[in-house]
Specification:
The chain is an alpha/beta fold. The chain has a single domain, classed as 3-Layer(aba) Sandwich (Rossmann fold), CATH 3.40.50.720. It contains nine helices and nine strands. The strands form two sheets. It has a seven-stranded parallel beta sheet, with helices on both faces. Helix 3 runs parallel beside helix 4. The radius of gyration is 17 Å and the shape is globular. The termini are far apart.
């Protein structure tokens, strides 16, 4: 088997690559960070192909697919992404557009292209790394939450379409809460909960993907948070979410 992972040079992506390598699955890594991908290639015990790609650019998404479409990719993991902390009225527009291009547009393009191949072969696995943020509106990180909601709902809808078709293709959304990665630093987050390990999130995501789960919520606190917000008034959830984001400013 061969798996393509975007954004595999750190955090959950790196943990996903390591877990798949343990299973003897060959890897194609796509990222802007060529140096880090080459380091991973040297230490992982499986064949690894490194593909330099800036997935904030639509043309690079198409070029990535064209480069690997004949490799019989069995697993696609859309993991690349980042967040921005701050009020919507204050965050930089260009940075937000770059984030949405990576977190939403790249996921949409690659999912669309590879899913067509998977359906034609009637096999394949697709894991979109969303977030528990996808279940909520996110004052304090408005665009990030909205983007992750898109990824979550898109993935859920595709999962049901495939089920209705009787397809053997498996599609899953991984929705972690806080995870111990470099995400917080890039987003400008200084406080907040410690979160689970990237390895725990990766293992839960792969387990759910292989078992054909539509959504995976790794960690007990994430599951409890999801259940809790379903029984609270939306206005209260919004205020609680805002309070949580405000604490992340340090």
């Amino acid at each position: 088997m061969t798996a393509l992972i975007t954004g595999a040079t750190g955090g959950i992506g790196s943990a996903l690559a390591e877990e798949l390598a343990k299973r003897g699955i060959g890897l194609i890594l796509a990222s802007r960070n060529v140096e880090q991908m080459e380091k991973m290639k040297r230490r992982l015990p499986v064949p690894v192909e490194v593909v330099p790609a800036d997935l904030t650019r639509k043309e690079d998404c198409y070029a990535l697919y064209e480069r690997v479409k004949d490799r019989n990719v069995d697993i696609l993991i859309n993991n690349a992404g980042f967040g921005i902390l701050g009020h919507f009225s204050e965050t930089a527009l260009e940075t937000e557009l770059e984030m949405l291009a990576l977190n939403v547009e790249a996921v949409h393009i690659l999912t669309k292209l590879f899913l067509a191949d998977f359906r034609r072969r009637n096999r394949g696995y697709l894991l979109n790394v969303a977030s528990s943020a996808g279940f909520l509106a996110g004052p304090g990180m408005a665009a990030y939450y909205a983007g992750k909601s898109y990824v979550l709902r898109l993935t859920e809808a595709i999962h049901e379409e495939l089920r209705q078709e009787g397809s053997a293709v498996k599609v899953c959304a991984l929705c972690p809460g806080p995870v111990q990665t470099g995400f917080q630093k890039r987003a400008g987050i200084q406080g907040g909960m410690k979160g689970i390990s990237a390895r725990k999130a990766a293992r839960a995501g792969l387990r759910g993907m292989f078992r054909n789960k539509s959504v995976v919520l790794p960690g007990m606190s994430t599951k409890l948070g999801y259940l809790g917000q379903k029984f609270l008034p939306e206005k209260l959830v919004l205020r609680m979410t805002y309070a949580i984001q405000s604490k992340k400013k340090g």
